[in-house]
Write a structure and sequence with these properties.
Elements lengths: L1 H24 L2 H7 L21 E5 L4 H11 L3 E6 L20 H7 L3 E4 L5 H13 L2 E4 L5 H4 L4 H7 L4 E6 L13 H7 L22 H22 L4 E5 H8 L1 H9 L9 H4 L21 E5 L10 E5 L5 H7 L14 H4 L3 H12 L4 H10 L4 E3 L3 H4 L1
Parallel strand pairs: 1-2, 1-4, 2-3, 4-5, 5-6
Antiparallel strand pairs: 7-8, 8-9
Helix pairs in contact: 3-9, 8-10, 9-10
Bound molecules: oxidized coenzyme A.
The site of oxidized coenzyme A has 25 residues, from helix 3, strand 2, helix 6 and strand 5.
Length: 391
């Protein structure tokens, strides 16, 4: 018995030694080879090419959502070949034209860094050229109205047969369902994606935002889908379809409002100023004016000059960790210990009064002065910057 035990011990010792030897033998070269990556580049940072060098995009995009996506890919190094309709081109070339006779800024701001070609995709010769391009490219991106790509003969089956490695990426207004055949523009998506119903003031109509969350937002989502599909292709050798619906893109960006819809089942949304004002909640996430979308209450407050300057305002966040600094700053040191104000839950029903008091202070300073003073104390604030101040 003891002999057997001894033999087993010796055997396992030998096995361990063997494994240990193996581990020691794993040189950097072998490790790199084991996960399929090349050895780390020795070139200086920024001189090893761009992330998407070598990727070729057949860019069938127009207007804003699709071009935003392909432009991002072009910025990352992809070679974008933008295909336009002969004699017509991307409609934005001539829309909102700022300089007579030149492509509009609307077009150039979305299509820089790309190459352009006109091809009639419904002409036999055009189809032949497109088939050749399909074989040469890695990704086809399009944001035609639903069904248009198929009507050109560029069905998934056709493309996949010509080039099984190709990724076919699309923006559409809606995903599968009753609206999937609808044409969609930015504000349609903002409305259908839940953003408009939750933007604006409670006593006013729904509002769209100036940020292009439907178009540019969906273009961004699509770019991530394409890059992921390219990454997966390294493993599978096969392309795939990628679809981003603008409604879904907007809903994803409005996710905190979707969160609030789900929270409503469990009681009122105490961080909304409506709660402090004693206004009951309905069945849907309400419009909340300038309330913050997170757990730290905030509001837009007037600053010096607001009577004549439409942008003399600041976003002020009463972040809990800096509450005492805020009290000292606005001349309300007693609020630091007053049980009605000392804790975040105690403050929630009093937000309107609190922001009124803070505003009395911000109105004595310009938005930039408020910014400087507050940031020195770690109080998060954001000046309302006009486009002329950023451009
Ligand atoms: N050669 C020949 N025909 C071409 C062509 C080319 N190179 N490029 C486009 N066409 C044709 C299309 O095939 C289509 O013809 P059919 O309808 O007869 O098949 C026609 O041009 C019009 O294309 P479209 O329907 O995409 O364009 P539209 O101006 O009528 O609609 C838009 C524009 C944006 C509403 C629609 O494309 C759409 O809903 N796209 C998806 C959602 C989207 O991206 N919206 C964001 C737009 S940015 O605000």
């Amino acid at each position: 018995m003891a002999k057997r035990k001894k033999a087993a011990k010796a055997k396992s010792k030998a096995a361990a030694k063997k494994t240990a030897k193996k581990v020691v033998k794993f040189t950097a070269k072998k490790l790199a080879a084991s996960n399929g990556l090349p050895r780390p580049s020795a070139k200086p940072w920024g001189q090893a090419g761009r992330a998407l060098d070598g990727v070729r995009i057949l860019d069938f995009t127009h207007v804003q959502s699709g071009p935003t996506c392909t432009q991002l890919l072009a910025y990352m190094g992809a070679d974008c070949i933008k295909v336009e309709r002969p004699g017509i081109g991307d409609i934005t070339r001539g829309q909102l034209r700022d300089v007579k006779g030149a492509d509009s800024l609307y077009f150039t701001m979305l299509n820089g860094s790309k190459r352009s070609i006109t091809i009639d995709s419904k002409h036999a010769k055009g189809k032949e050229i497109l088939d050749r391009l399909v074989k040469l490219c890695d990704v086809l991106v399009e944001n035609f109205a639903p069904g248009a790509l198929d009507r050109m003969g560029l069905t998934w089956e056709h493309i996949h047969k010509l080039n099984p490695r190709m990724i076919v990426a699309s923006v559409k207004g809606f995903g599968p369902g009753p609206y999937e055949d609808c044409k969609v523009y930015e504000n349609v998506a903002q409305c259908a994606g839940g953003s408009a119903s939750t933007t604006g003031f409670r006593d006013g109509p729904p509002l769209v935002t100036g940020s292009q969350i439907g178009d540019s937002g969906t273009g961004l989502h699509l770019a991530l889908g394409i890059v992921s599909a390219l990454y997966q292709r390294n493993r599978t050798g096969r392309g795939q379809r990628v679809l981003c619906a603008m409604q879904d893109g907007v809903l994803n960006l409005a996710r905190v409002k979707l969160r609030d819809q789900q929270r409503l089942k469990h009681g009122p949304l105490t961080e909304y100023s409506q709660y402090g004002e004693g206004v009951p909640f309905g069945k849907a996430t309400p419009r909340a004016g300038n309330d913050s979308g997170g757990g730290q209450p905030g509001w837009i407050l007037k600053c010096k000059g607001w009577e004549s300057d439409p942008d003399a305002y600041i976003y002020f966040i009463t972040q809990a960790p800096v509450w005492t600094a805020i009290c000292d700053l606005i001349g309300k040191p007693e609020w630091k210990t007053d049980p009605d104000y000392a804790t975040p839950p105690a403050r929630l029903p009093r937000l309107r009064g609190i922001f009124d008091a803070i505003e009395q202070w911000t109105m004595t300073k310009t938005k930039f002065e408020v910014m400087e003073i507050c940031n020195k104390q770690d109080i998060p604030v954001g000046p309302i910057l006009a486009m002329k101040e950023i451009a």
